[in-house]
Write a sequence for this structure.
């Protein structure tokens, strides 16, 4: 299926591995010029080489608003413009209400919410002026069904989801769509290091009876960036093998 986005230009944040890498790889496969980023130059260049094609490696830390905005600004200089923005940020430490200090919430909200706002502030006005754009944010199924030991992630990503839903309503008349994608358990380095020997147990909890593959997740992100998805905005799409059991 031709997604109709060949020649478009994308900035994909936190994309040296995991779901960010999968999203960048899927977009590049559709002929999109992609800028990726990570904190370590060597890892960014290695990821760009693995993707191949017209990939621009940028060293940036998107866990802060300054770093996130700087990444998009540099991507726009390198690519000429950014038509597609994939919002993705590093994870926050695990913890419960009882084990998480009040002081930890500020950095978590900066990481999950303010950094994303900074990226959108840098990229979306240009999309509006050109009459076309796509914003897709990678959040978590924990927004719908909170994970007990990930209180910082649950809180921050929920705030981000509210911001992006509000943004979607504002920029829809300008031809810009804004959606979030909510992964469940996917076979990434982060999940494998966290779950360890419990990975099979996690798969058993999923109705699909499997842990998701990053490439399949990346394909969903690419579709949301397509011309065919132009009437889909303000949506929060769970990609979790049926893990979330609610009606909405």
């Amino acid at each position: 299926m031709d997604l109709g986005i060949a020649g478009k230009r994308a900035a994909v944040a936190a994309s040296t591995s995991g779901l960010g890498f999968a999203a960048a790889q899927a977009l590049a496969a559709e002929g999109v010029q992609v800028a990726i980023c990570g904190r370590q130059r060597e890892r960014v260049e290695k990821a760009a080489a693995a993707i191949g094609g017209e990939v621009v490696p940028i060293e940036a830390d998107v866990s802060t608003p300054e770093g996130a905005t700087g990444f998009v600004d540099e991507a726009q200089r390198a690519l000429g413009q950014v038509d597609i923005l994939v919002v993705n940020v590093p994870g926050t430490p695990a913890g419960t209400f009882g084990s998480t200090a009040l002081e930890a919430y500020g950095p978590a909200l900066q990481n999950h919410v303010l950094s994303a706002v900074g990226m959108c502030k840098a990229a979306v006005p240009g999309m509006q002026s050109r009459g076309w754009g796509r914003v897709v944010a990678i959040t978590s199924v924990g927004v719908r069904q909170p994970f007990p030991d990930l209180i910082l992630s649950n809180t921050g990503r929920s705030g981000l989801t509210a911001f992006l839903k509000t943004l979607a309503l504002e920029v829809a008349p300008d031809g810009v769509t804004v959606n979030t994608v909510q992964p469940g358990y996917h076979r990434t380095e982060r999940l494998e290091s966290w779950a360890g020997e419990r990975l099979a147990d996690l798969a058993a909890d999923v109705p699909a009876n499997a842990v998701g593959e990053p490439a399949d997740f990346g394909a969903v992100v690419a579709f949301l960036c397509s011309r065919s998805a132009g009437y889909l905005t303000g949506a929060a799409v769970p990609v979790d093998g049926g893990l979330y059991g609610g009606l909405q």
Remarks:
- The chain is about 45% helix and 15% strand.
- The mean pLDDT is 93.
- The chain has one domain: 9-235.
- The beta strands are 9-12, 33-38, 55-59, 84-87, 133-138, 176-183, 236-239.
